[in-house]
Amino acid sequence: MNLIIKKNLVICISMAIWVLASCKIIQPYKQPVNITNDKLYRDISTTDTSSIASISWKDMFSDKILQSLIQEGIDNNPDLQVAIARIRSASANFKQSKLSFLPSLNAGAAASFQDVASTQFGFPEAYQLSMNASWMADLWGQLSSAKRAALASMLQSEAYRRAVQTQLISDIATNYYLLMSYDAALAITEKTLSLRKEEVETMKILKEGDIVTGAAVVQSTANRYSVEITIPDLKQNIRETENAISVLLGKSPDTIMRASLEEQPVDTNLSTGVPAQLLANRPDVQQAEFQLRNSFEMINVARTYFYPSLNITASAGFSSLYIAQMFNPSLFFSNLTGSLLQPVFNQGINKQRLAVAQARYEEYLANFRKSVLTAGQEVSNALYSYKTAVEKESLRLQQIAYLEKSVEFTKELLKYSSKANYTDVLTSEQSLLSAQLNSVNDKLQQLTAVVSLYKSLGGGWK
């Protein structure tokens, strides 16, 4: 009895040593340090943690038509549906990783028949019903690390879905504003064309009065066609943008309802928060970190292969020579086996597995850092784009006002003074049209800069 007690004590001590040793084998994940800093947004520095990323997209975009388009995109976009399918796949893998802690169980039935003449003892039949179970003890944390790796993969797929949604909202809003800018440009061009047609008739009348030459009539006609020829391109841009939005909405190309560019308000409260908030707000940054966490846990798994594995198997059932006596209690059998397997030489697979896991961790660490730097770059670019668009807006209004006067004055001079010719009129008119179209682009730049900043900060998925 004492010998049995001593043996059990040795086994318990050995198991305790293994469990304690596992604490050194498996390392807890820690987020890499110095991922963000105060200079991430370049010259933008703030301690205010309020950020437009925390605003719901329904509050961010007040246009009801745009809200409807975004909701339709979220409901039907194919890329978002792919992302959701990936979540289901990763979730199934995570659920399976939790079940790996449980023993596997198999049931079997067997029957054998032999020719009596070839059977030495005269038992031509044999029957067996059995249940087999096997269980691997998680001595070194291999299963725990694998479960955490599967959890990181599932969270990564969820972050990917959020990233797809954020990009989708940005694409729909950007194309919606772009579509309205083409409408505005088309309206300006068509109005200009109408004026050019009137101008041709005016030049013909002035020529009859010997005020201008035939060259002015020809130039005015060419000027009319130079405007008209841009209209087909604008209509094509409108059609292609409508088609692009339709695809984002997950439907066949169709006409897209929209408001006018002039009605669109520009949000001036562009709070960015602090750079460290990108780690919690921006989905692609989260995705990169979950990928890093997965690779970290796979290093833990790779380390456990260098240590012994404990497997316990058990079997039980009934075995009989006669099927009628199959469940006779006296024919019941059972077996319990424990085995400890220590790897000695397996062609360097364990070292190769660990080296690959460590290399992948370094790869994903670099990718994580890059995703943060890219996010900072996009925030800085969006802020500066908005700033320059605002600066251009007031200057553009003044430019248009003076060009309108220039067109008016040169036309009057052409009628009543020999000091002006049609070339002066032509130059001022072309400059005015260009400035008017650029004013549309200035408004578009403001709107798209706000959308870009919202996306860059991680807005759109909450």
Task: Write a compact overview of the structure shown.
Helices cover 63% and strands 10% of the residues. By secondary structure, the protein is of the alpha+beta class.
Please, could you describe this protein's structure?
This protein has 462 residues and is of the alpha+beta class. It folds into two domains: 22-101 and 140-307 and 349-456, Up-down Bundle (Outer membrane efflux proteins (OEP)), CATH 1.20.1600.10; 104-137 and 310-342, Outer membrane efflux proteins (OEP). Helix content is 63%, strand content 10%. The chain has eleven helices and four strands, in the order ααααββαααααββαα. The protein has a four-stranded antiparallel β-sheet, with no helix packed on it.
List the keywords.
Outer membrane efflux proteins (OEP), 2 domains, about 65% helix, 11 helices, about 450 residues, alpha+beta
User: Tally the helices: what do you get?
Assistant: 11
- CATH level 1 class label of the largest domain: Mainly Alpha
Spell the H/E element sequence.
Answer: HHHHEEHHHHHEEHH
Portion of residues in helices? 55-70%
CATH topology of the largest domain: Outer membrane efflux proteins (OEP)
Compute the separation of the termini in Å. 66 Å
The gyration radius over C-alpha positions equals 38 Å
CATH superfamily of the largest domain: Outer membrane efflux proteins (OEP)
Shape: elongated
Which structural class best describes the helix and strand composition?
A: alpha+beta
Looking at the overall shape, the CATH architecture of the largest domain is Up-down Bundle
Q: Into which percentage range does the β-strand content fall?
A: 5-15%
Number of strands: 4
* Biggest sheet, spatial arrangement of strands: 1-2-3-4
